[in-house]
Amino acid sequence: MFVQQEIRKPVSATASANAPASxxxxxxxxxxxxxxxxxxELFRRLPRADQRRWAQxxxxxxxxxxxxxxxxxxxxxxxxxxxxxxxxxxxVNASPWLWSEVREDLIWQVxxxxxPRAWTIAxxxxxxxxxxxxxxxxxxxxxxxxxxxxxxxxGAFLSTAAGEIPVDWSLHLPGPWLDDPVLRSRARIPESATxxxxxxxxxxxxxxxTARSPQRPLPLVADIAGHGDPGELVHGLSARGREFVVAxxxxxxxxxxxxxxxxxRTEPAPALPAERLLRxxxxxxxxxxxxxxxxxxxxxxxxxxxxxRLFTDPRPGPGAARTGQLWITNMVHRPTEDLLRLIGAxxxxxxxxxxLADEFGLYDFEGRSFPGWHHHMTLVSGAFAYRTLTTGHAPxxxxxxx
Length: 402
Prior knowledge:
Blueprint (H helix, E strand, L loop, with lengths): L1 E2 L29 H10 L6 H16 L6 H8 L5 H10 L5 H15 L4 E10 L9 E5 L4 E15 L2 E10 L2 H5 L1 H7 L10 H15 L7 E3 L7 H10 L4 E5 L4 E4 L15 E2 H8 L1 E3 L4 E8 L10 E5 L13 E4 L6 H24 L10 H21 L12
Parallel strand pairs: 2-6, 6-7
Antiparallel strand pairs: 1-5, 2-4, 3-4, 4-5, 7-13, 8-9, 8-11, 10-11, 11-12, 12-13
Helix pairs in contact: 1-2, 2-3, 2-4, 2-12, 3-4, 5-12, 8-9
């Protein structure tokens, strides 16, 4: 069940929302001019100057603090003030600012430097000790091969030449976190938060990207294997008219079909597991390197089929997706090379998640509230984007005035 709502509060008419954080936090070490400019643009809509200053300090701390990113260590990296840790904690966990606005500005920032070529969405298991953190529960994590106590999130990434850059997040809330009024109140989960499946969470992130991005919708690549229903996701993306490539399990029932321009069937063909169908119906493409088959989802009306292409990536090595993974796409006439590049973006997203965990404190948030989690994930995304985009890059163009 994925929720992403936040409590929206109006900006005061007297607040200078576009003004930079001109005064540093107490005892702060100087930040680079480029980091300051990036933060001024990214946090320009935070309603108070002190919020913008602490946002900049937190972003800087994520960039320079080695090892585990505890609040105390983050504060010590950017300030010698004895109250800096408390102030950072207050800013992240209790200060009322809208993460959705910062994420929208982050999308615009990325587009100033790069031209995204795809959107990728991936589930993320965040290991947790104890039971107090918002959304924590036990679940089987396929990538770890065991059950763990964790939070489950979805991350949305812009796939660029510079790398996969996170720009939006959604948090899974199991039933008790939504049904128990004590848990909801303690974690400050807004009343607007409702239950969502993993597939519905992906669709919500895709809708957010569509609404917030300066360009037309891009192909969406998603792998929710072991966490959600790919069939539900494919149906939802098709209904939205979105181009996609979605990972599917070998057991997914699919119906073999002819070329989409051929005559339609009048009788339904029997459904087969995806892997068996690909073996039986698959044909070589792209010099024999890519096996593929024309298919449609089981249960679709024969009189109104949606043509899909089922395929697998046989390439070994770091640029390939998971070995033997099957994929389904509605971009049935795209060249093989285009499809391989798209699923390569999903493999690159997995590497980005490792970097976020090892170097940016993705797993290290110590707060327990729903808003605090979203604030932390937003700031982690901003720090990663700054380092990725400003390492040998200059803005491609100014898409709007500050």
